[in-house]
Amino acid sequence: MSSLSCGIVGLPNVGKSTIFSALTNAAVESANYPFTTIEPNIAIVDVPDKRLASLYKLLESKKIVPTTLKFVDIAGLVQGASKGEGLGNKFLGNIREVDSIAHVLRCFKGDVTHVLESIDPIRDLEIINLELAISDLQIIEKRILKLDKLKRSGDKEAIKEFNLVKKIEDMLNKNQSINTSMDFDIEESRIIKSMNLISTKPTIYILNYGNESIEQDEIIKLKKAIDDKAHSYVEIYGLLENEIKDLDNDDKELFLKEYDVKETGLNLLINKSYSILNLITYYTAGKEETRAWSIMNNTRAPEAAGKIHSDFQKGFIRAEIIEYQDYMDLESEEAAKNKGLMRSEGKDYIVKDGDIIHFRYNV
């Protein structure tokens, strides 16, 4: 499976490209006018993982391989994008291709020109969400027309899908969040997924602060507006992160302590991305290589094995598992085995976050 992707979106000049540059340590053009970013910039980013680093150090492996996420810096959206304003159609096409959304909200003052000439992150949030909802409604309306013809002929599947699509249309018109895992059953979720609606993509809001941030009461209102929609947010000092991106980890930590920032924006964003994408990590560990693997939560052992190689899944026999903490406490696979802390699990085993696994297979 290729890296899951997180699209960084927002109105022009809210600091998207600055954050992308800081988070990915990749230099992208950032300027004081709209549409600096036209083609999306893409970066594959290693996921910081203290457990992986500890395993690598313990085993003195020759190689360490973290898991990755893909960040996509997408062109700034403007009001009317759903009608083709600005780079609307291109923007909406790019955003449909990502797995999750990181929506940057400008929470800093300063000389950088805001496209709407005033700083109001709640207004900005509502503008983009409205444009995304309108874009999805256009897809829904076309689907309704098609299904209406089919349901008149008595097609039972068409009738079921028509009712589902009408429900989604009603939710979008009421500005309600669409959570496929909570609001719909498995079959309904499958149908909705096939429509690739932007409104169903898990979203993180990035509150981007600067040297001079907006008033605290405005920030409190913004957080409440995000919480009311049951979304997540992270707080990032984009310019600060950009300044320290080239420092080594020790210097970076000292710099962050000076500003009373506990963790880098990348770590915060990665952790939130993992959470909203419903991902967990398992490990393979040995002298040659210590490696992290990302899988969806509730994945069975054969499918997890298939992440390494399709032959592992096809010829799956069993998974030999040691829990991370047991491995670290006993300091070797052999010691864990001797203590009876290595388990043998079959095809129905649901892999857990932190499992260290050796797959047995036969092809």
Short description:
The chain is of the alpha/beta class. It folds into 2 domains: about 5-275, Rossmann fold; about 300-360, Ubiquitin-like (UB roll), CATH 3.10.20.30.
Blueprint of the fold:
Elements: E1 5-9, H1 16-24, E2 41-46, H2 50-59, E3 63-65, E4 68-73, H3 88-96, E5 100-106, H4 121-152, H5 156-173, H6 180-183, H7 186-195, E6 203-209, H8 216-228, E7 232-237, H9 238-244, H10 249-258, H11 265-276, E8 279-285, E9 289-296, H12 301-308, H13 310-314, E10 316-323, H14 324-330, H15 333-338, E11 343-345, E12 355-361
Parallel strand pairs: 1-4, 1-5, 3-9, 5-6, 6-7
Antiparallel strand pairs: 2-4, 8-9, 10-11, 10-12
Helix pairs in contact: 1-9, 4-5
List key phrases describing it:
363 residues, alpha/beta, Rossmann fold, Ubiquitin-like (UB roll), 6-stranded mixed β-sheet, 3-stranded mixed β-sheet
End-to-end C-alpha gap: 21 Å
Question: How much β-strand is present in the residues?
Answer: 15-25%
Estimate the helix proportion, in percent: 40-55%
- Low-pLDDT regions: 26-38
CATH superfamily of the largest domain: P-loop containing nucleotide triphosphate hydrolases
Rounded to the nearest angstrom, the radius of gyration is 23 Å
CATH class of the largest domain: Alpha Beta
Number of helices: 15
The biggest sheet amounts to:
6 strands, mixed
* CATH topology assignment of the largest domain: Rossmann fold
Helix-and-strand structural type: alpha/beta
The sequence of SSEs as H and E is: EHEHEEHEHHHHEHEHHHEEHHEHHEE
Question: In the CATH classification, which architecture of the largest domain applies?
Answer: 3-Layer(aba) Sandwich
Number of strands: 12
Which shape, going by the Cα principal axes?
A: flat
Which whole number gives the mean pLDDT? Answer: 85
Please indicate the count of domains: 2
In order across it, which strands form the biggest sheet? 2-4-1-5-6-7
